[in-house]
Amino acid sequence: MNQRDPLKRVLYIDLSRKSFWIDDRVDLFERWLGGIGVAVQLFKEEAPKNIEPLSPENPVIFSIGPLTSLYPLASKTVALFKSPLTGNLGESHAGGRSAIAIRLAGYGAIIIKGASQLPLYLVIKEGEVEFRDGSALWGISNANTVGRILREAAIGRGIRTIMRIGKAGEKLVSYAAVITETYRHFGRLGLGAVLGSKKVKGIIIYGKHSIPIQDKKKYREIYDRLYRLAVGSDAMKRYHDLGTAINILPLNYIGALPTRNLNSSRFEGAEEICGENIAEKKLARRVACAHCPIACIHIASIREPYPDEPYFYKTTFISYDHELLYSLGSMLGVKKIDDVLRLIDTVEAMGLDAISTGVCLAWATEAYKRGIITINETLVELDWGNIDNYIQVIKYIVEQPNDFYGMLARGTREASKHYGGQEFALNFGGNEMPGYHTGYGAIIGYSIGSRHSHLDCAGYRVDQTIKEPPSPEEFVELLIKEEEWRQILNSLTICLFARSIYNVENIIEALKPLGYNYTEEELKKTGEEIYFEKQKLKLKLGFKPEELKIPSRVFETPTPHGLLKREYIEEALQHYIKLIEYKTLQ
Ligand code: SF4
């Protein structure tokens, strides 16, 4: 049995030369833990300053952390790349079995560079990479079909993950996703397009390496404590019972659920598409990422009769959560559960990011209704809740039959720059808006967060816990502090749903039996350093914080804190710019 810790080894794959090599990078993993901390450093080493997102020079980095496969809920893999959607740093996290498979295959990180001339899929095992012909897979539009085929191809032993792209990735849609297993994704910021540009249709990783533990007795104690905390916690029970779909009703109640391209923050169909109603009528099962006792992934089933075949039905299983119900439900005025699920299924099959797709459809619907674009561009009529046409539009986004769809495939920022309607193009730094219109915290968070995502610093949560917002400066500092701490969680690749279980004390204890001795101060300092390393990298890649634009719509639709004032947000952004300039110059 191999007792060498595989975590500190990096697998380098060069697609252009069809070669690979492995380096020990103890230096990086000891200094930056793993996950995002290590990925940022690897990206700095690998990416020249002015790379194009869809060029062979854009490296894709997958990275995991020291807790992976050892502790419950340390289930995520971090992916880092230059995003074709924002033109800046792209960071996306996925669960499933990806993290454990990477570690048991004998690596802490995998870097994929270059580009293949012909379609291929990669098979990665310990000490071995196969570059297999993927021509027969190229052109298969449904990402799940690709997954099923690759399952047959992946004959090997151990824990296995299958990542793949759908047609959207092949066609370089800027918000194409990568699907892992069946219900998990590297969803945001266009990793699917980057792999598509490299002609990589799929990646299979498997392994059965063992992992040495320095202090087994202590490890078992901490493991038991964390496991008991996770399964006994009310916070985690919510995720198991209804998942994040539980958010729809409360957000609607307080007036924070973006509806019809944020023309409203309340949706009259919320009772129908809420987690409670779907669970009652459609929930088929719950599944979990590997090594997670919570199982927050909710799978609904829909049955459609086969034509002319009485008593025969096609049953489709579809995973759903809050973001999907918002972006393909309330944001588009879709009121029936089956209709939202059909849209989710289409997006999933094509291999698109659901949030960006929904917000693109919402922008296009409003632009169409205002006469900014016409049927000459859209090819079908667009109206809120018109599900059949939305399904057609999703297919057009992927196929890009005309210039308009070519532009819409690049996101709301590019489409609105070209056709107009920037004031209601709901993106921040180029990334489409998540499903929370809760107040200043949400909007500042989307703007200054490294990924322009609600997950960076959870401003939407702060909005829901405060009566009055603090000063813009204080708000920015509060959100940056939160984002700094999340760099530790993301370097240890802990599921963010488990952030209350993995508090500072528990993380320090969990690391000890693995040979890492951190004080609280050291851990927080590392989080701060990773945050600023990432900000510096964004600036190097061309991010210009002074060019951040907030769509006017945000100020026209009330939040639970009333109508937001532009001056407040602008003051906050100025303060952020000052802090970033000061810190990154040090
Ligand atoms: S809580 Fe959900 S997302 Fe997090 S690790 Fe478990 S199953 Fe995966």
Explain what you see:
This protein has 3 domains: 6-206, 4-Layer Sandwich (Aldehyde Ferredoxin Oxidoreductase,  A, domain 1), CATH 3.60.9.10; 233-407, Aldehyde Ferredoxin Oxidoreductase Protein, subunit A, domain 2 (Orthogonal Bundle), CATH 1.10.569.10; 431-585, Aldehyde Ferredoxin Oxidoreductase Protein, subunit A, domain 3, CATH 1.10.599.10. It is globular and about 65 Å long. The chain has 586 residues and is α+β, with helices and mostly antiparallel strands. It is built from 26 helices and 17 strands. Helices cover 42% and strands 16% of the residues. Iron/sulfur cluster binds at residues 73, 75, 95, 239, 288-289, 292, 294-297, 495, 497.
